Amino acid sequence: MVVCLQSADRIEELRTEDDRAGDQALGLEQRDSAPAGRKLREACAEVFIGMFFSVLVMFAIMAATAATLGKNGTDVKTAADAARALEPIVGPAAKFLFAAGFIGSGILAVPVLAAAGSAGLAGLTGRQRGFEKHPRKAPIFYSLLGVGTIGGVIISFFTSDPIGLLILSAIINGIAAEPFLIVTMLIAGDSKLMGKYRNGKLATSLGWASTAIMVLAGVIGIFTTITGTG
Questions:
Q1: In angstroms, rounded to a whole number, what is the distance separating the alpha carbons of residues 64 and 82?
Q2: CA angle at 21 for the pair 18 and 26, rounded to the nearest 5°
Q3: GO cellular component annotations, sorted alphabetically (predicted)?
Q4: Each residue's pLDDT tens digit, 175-209
């Protein structure tokens, strides 16, 4: 889903920053060489920095959880259970610190994920999408956004295992991402589509290696979920 939003957001930026674009974004080949090169460098830096820190935070969460809850075989069912991973570091304040982080990440992630799904589905139907569009011009996008957000709130009130839902949604997202990764790699390596901006040998090798790891992780995730061996 985030792949859809990233692409849609980039198109919005390119479209709104140049009046010549109209409803369509101008490609790099249609722009002046200096601004196009600067835009490409900025995009690369933005993605690299964002991915670096997101992976760093993810690793810290995994390491802290494995060293505390995982070490003792604790079955995490609620947010309070997960908060215990911080107790060795901050003591009784763990639940308050975890709550602040949990709420903050929710405020950040919910609009992004809801908009990502809405943009993807609206795009499949060929309808207009994006927050720069008025609701009357993009009714499908905003309707899906509202349904997704309200639906998530309703589900949270009627489930006894919110952590299980988070894990399930992560597995679904991980599996759904694999076809997008394959298509992205094929497009990025196609000289007819990308021209001089196609992936180099290093990017191609790392990209396909990451895609293979994701596919393998998805297969393992499905197996452990079905068999209950995870």
A1: 10
A2: 90
A3: membrane
A4: 888 888 898 899 999 988 888 888 889 999 999 99
